[in-house]
Structures are given as structure tokens and as C-alpha cells.
Amino acid sequence: MPLKHTPYWRLSGFYFCYFASLGVLVPYWGLYLQWQGFSAKEIGELTAILLATRIIAPNVWGWIADHHGQRMRIVRFASLCGVIAFSILLFDNSYIWIAGTMLIFSFFWNASLPQFEATTLQHLGDHSHHYSKIRLWGSIGFIATVAILGTLLEQFDANIVPYAMLIAMSGIWLVSLSVPESSSRHMTLTTTALLTVLKRPEVIAFLAICFLVQISHGPFYTFYTIYLEQHYYSRSLIGQLWAIGVIAEVIVFLFMHQWLPALGIKKVLLISTLLGSARWFIIGCYPDNLPLLIFAQLLHAASFGTFHVAAIAWVHQHFTGKNQGRGQALYSSVGFGAGGAVGSLFSGYLWLAPGPTFTFSLAAIISLIACLIGWRWLAKS
Fold first, then answer.
1. Is the confidence at residue 2, as pLDDT, over 60?
2. Does residue 324 register a pLDDT over 90?
């Protein structure tokens, strides 16, 4: 059994709590900001701040981890600082205060996951294709959170969102205390200089794809809940729609250890971006058609699930040795950081005019461009 000597439940517990925090932020952060009276433009900007720190923070922490080791010590420290930083949000609700708080909080929050990804892959060693069996517990944490919080928001106002986030953040820190450092025995002894790796055409193409894919997710992550509320869906149903998408993701994670070696990383990435393009088109054009919205949410298994697992495997394959932590950090910063921030900004500026349909259609085109780049420049792997 490949996972026999891996601290499976402790690794899985961290993912559960980390993605439970995303289950608070992704569907309900925009709703909370709207409840506080912020405009669509301001919501886009505040969400972009949350994501923009991923451009710098993961690379700072990745450099420290790759030079000094002890990734879990960094994860524990950053998780505790994240709890303390986010609690500052409770003292004021002005634009400047929230912006400053999220800037500090996200610098620490964004430190954790890339280093934990590297730790998990080192624990798995030669069985890294079983990563999805551990990562699926993050999806379960997300599902549980969106479903429970969506139901609670039928009874209470959006002021409960920051408190839910603090509970999830505290869980991340507490579980991190139990996760052991990974052994360095799985790391390649010889390491190519990072700059040399970054000059390779296939690496440039991969990072461009990650950037574009996360831009295309911008309208969804920033405004999907608000969008559905505008079309008279209840908050509990909205939470269920979020959960449907991640349930599909969990099912995919159960089989990715078989599909990835069989199909290859390039083919999985191309299929993911194509289906992602279809998803954004459906959401933008058919918001009042519930069966089509459910189908679009099932496509989350591709636009995020299969893409993420294939991307993690690609990074693990191309950033070896001491570059592992910085490779995961680059994937996070270029994609979720720069791409996510640009996606939030453009969706915030376009949301009221030309409007949601145009914004989601543009996201569909961007995902299609990512597919074309992958088809042309990614080598088979």
C-alpha cells in the first residue's frame, strides 16, 4: 500500500481545514463585502488584494524553505500569524482597514499551502501520483463549509463570515502542529539552477497557462454568489451549487492516480482548459437555467480538479531537488496570485457594464487561449 508509511490523516486534516477556510472566503467573502456596502468595483479590488500577495509571499517563503529546510516550521508560524492577522478585521469595517488587514493576513496565509504541497509530495516520494487521495480531503472540507455556512446565512446576516473564517484558520494552525517534517531522502541530489529551468519554453508556456486559467476563474470566485442572488437563488441553494462542484472534484481526485499516468499530464491540462471554457460560457449565458448551472458546476471537476492535480504533477516533475518549494511557490504566485488578482480586478471593473454575460464570455475565451498555448508549446509528459 503506497500510503502505508505516510502520515495520511495528519496531511489530510491540514487540507481539510485549509480548504474549509477557502469554503468561507471563495463563496461568501464577496457577499460579506456587499453586506458591508461596498460596490462591485471595490469588491473586485479587495478580493484582488487577497490574491495579489500570492505573487510575492509564496516565493519569499519558498526561498526560505529551500535554503533552510523545515517547511513545517514555516507552515506553523505562518498559520498562527494568519489567525492573529485576520482577527484584526473585527475592529473596523472601512475600506482602508479591510484592505490593510487582508494584505497582512494573506501574506502569511499564502505562505502555507505551497510549502505544505512540497511536504506532502516528499512524504509520498515515488508515489506522488497518489497525491489526489490526500488532497481530496481538502475538497471535503470545502463542501462541508459551503453547505453549513450557506444554511446558516439563511438565518443570520453575513457578519458571521469573519468568525467562520477564524474558526477555519485556527483549525489549520492546530492541525499543522501534528504534521511531521518530511524526509529529504526523496529530493534529487543534483539541482538545475532555477533561472535555467525558467528559461525553458515549456516552463514559460506552463506558467502562462496557469496565469490565464486563474484569470478565467476571476468572475466565478469573486461574483458567483452575488450573481446567483441577483437571479433569485436562495443562499442555501447557492451553497449547494458550490458543493456540487467540489463533490465532482472529489470524485475526480479518487481516480486521478489512475488517469494521470494513463493520459499524460499534457492531455489532462488541455482537456481541463477546454471544459473550463465551456463552463464559463454556460454560467454567463444561462444563469436562469438550473439544470445547466448544475452541469456547469460539475465541470468544476475539470476547470479546477483535474487541472490542479496535473499542474502539481507537472511542477513536481520539472522543479526537482531544492527547487521543489520554489516551483510550487511559482505555480501558486503566477496562477492563483497574479492570475487570480487580474481576474478579480477585470471582473470587478466589467461586472456592471458591459455586465456578467460579457465578463463570463471573456473568461471562456481566456481559458480557450490557455488551451491553445498548451497544445502548441507543452511537451508530452
1. no
2. no
C-alpha dihedral sign at 165, 170, 171, 173? positive
Burial class (CB in 10 A: 0-12, 13-18, 19+), 246: buried
The Cα-based distances of 108 to 47, 69, 169, 345 in angstroms read 16, 18, 11, 22
For the record, the C-alpha cell of 114 comes out as 505551497
Question: What's the rounded Cα separation, in Å, for the pair 202 and 283?
Answer: 31
**If residue 91 lies in a helix (H) or strand (E), which one and from where to where?**
none
For 231-295, the DSSP string reads: TT--HHHHHHHHHHHHHHHHHHHHHHHHHHHHH-HHHHHHHHHHHHHHHHHHHHH-TT-HHHHHH
- Residue 86: phi, psi to the nearest 5? -65, -30
State the sign of the Cα–Cα–Cα–Cα dihedral 204, 206, 209, 213.
Answer: negative
CB 207 within 8 A of CB 301: no
- Per residue in 46-76, pLDDT (tens digit) is 999 888 888 888 888 877 877 777 789 989 9
Return the exposure string of 302-328: e unless at least 16 CB atoms fall within 10 Å of the residue's CB, then b: bbbbbbbbbbbbbbbebbbebbbbbbb
Query: What CATH number does the domain located at 11-377 have?
Result: 1.20.1250.20
Q: How many CA atoms lie within 13 A of 43 on its CB side?
A: 29
What are the extents of the domains in the chain?
Answer: 11-377
Strand, helix or coil at 92? coil
Supply the DSSP string of 332-376, one letter for each residue: IIIIIIIIHHHHHHHHHHHTTTT-HHHHHHHHHHHHHHHHHHHHH
> 361, 280 in Cβ contact below 8 A?
yes
Q: Identify the weakest region by mean pLDDT among 107-121, 139-153, 279-293, 306-320.
A: 107-121
